[in-house]
Specification:
This protein is of the alpha+beta class. It has 2 domains: 77 residues, Winged helix-like DNA-binding domain superfamily/Winged helix DNA-binding domain (Arc Repressor Mutant, subunit A); 99 residues, Arc Repressor Mutant, subunit A, CATH 1.10.10.10. Helix content is 54%, strand content 14%. Strands 1-3-2 form a 3-stranded antiparallel beta sheet, with helices on both faces. Strands 4-6-5 form a 3-stranded antiparallel beta sheet. β2 and β3 form a beta hairpin. The radius of gyration is 21 Å and the shape is elongated.
Length: 189
């Protein structure tokens, strides 16, 4: 088969699935090596980057998804129902950050870091499909473990958790001081 035929097959699969498909699964379907499929996907992505194309390929960990280019969003919402915009409050963002950097993490561990209950925040993040249950910790009570989802990666424009910014020691110290100040304010009220 020619490269164009493989591209057409991958395009058809991604369009039909509507969600991220593992590159390994594509390789199995095409009866190709994974690296060959990655090369075909790179060629497709280059074609889609042209100004006259409305779609793009987004790699998420070891999967790929076809999606609309961001710059076309304003036109898309004129035709489609406006997607529900989830509001991420400071509490939700703080909880999500803890989960993203510490995953897999239990609710109790999140509460130890935040210093307050986080049940509502975690439930909201699960509802927004930014966080999911990963299983249970092998400990008394078998608490649930939480981690981020593909939707989290898509929403924040990263391909994998490894791409999250690394905080340096100065930033960590500054955040620690801010947290202590907030705790002192709450205790003095």
């Amino acid at each position: 088969m020619k490269a164009e035929q493989y591209q057409a097959i991958i395009e058809g699969i991604l369009f039909t699935m509507g969600e991220a498909v593992e590159i390994e699964r594509l390789a199995e379907a095409l009866e190709l090596e994974t690296e060959q499929v990655r090369q075909i996907i790179r060629q497709m992505a280059e074609r889609y980057e042209q100004d006259d194309r409305g779609i793009q390929l987004m790699e998420i960990e070891d999967a790929v998804q076809m999606c609309t280019k961001k710059e076309l969003y304003e036109y898309l919402i004129k035709v489609a129902k406006q997607p529900k915009q989830h509001v991420l409050t400071d509490v939700l963002l703080e909880t999500l950050s803890i989960i993203a950097y510490k995953q897999p993490v239990t609710r109790l561990e999140i509460e130890k870091i935040r210093g307050v209950s986080c049940a509502h925040a975690v439930n909201k993040l699960v509802e927004y499909n930014l966080v999911c249950e990963l299983g249970r910790l092998d400990a008394p009570g078998r608490p649930l473990l939480f981690g981020t989802t593909e939707e989290f990666l898509r929403s924040f424009g990263v391909h994998s958790i490894e791409e999250l910014p690394v905080l340096n020691q100065d930033q960590m110290e500054e955040f620690r001081q801010q947290a202590e100040e907030e705790m002192n304010l709450k205790l003095n009220v």
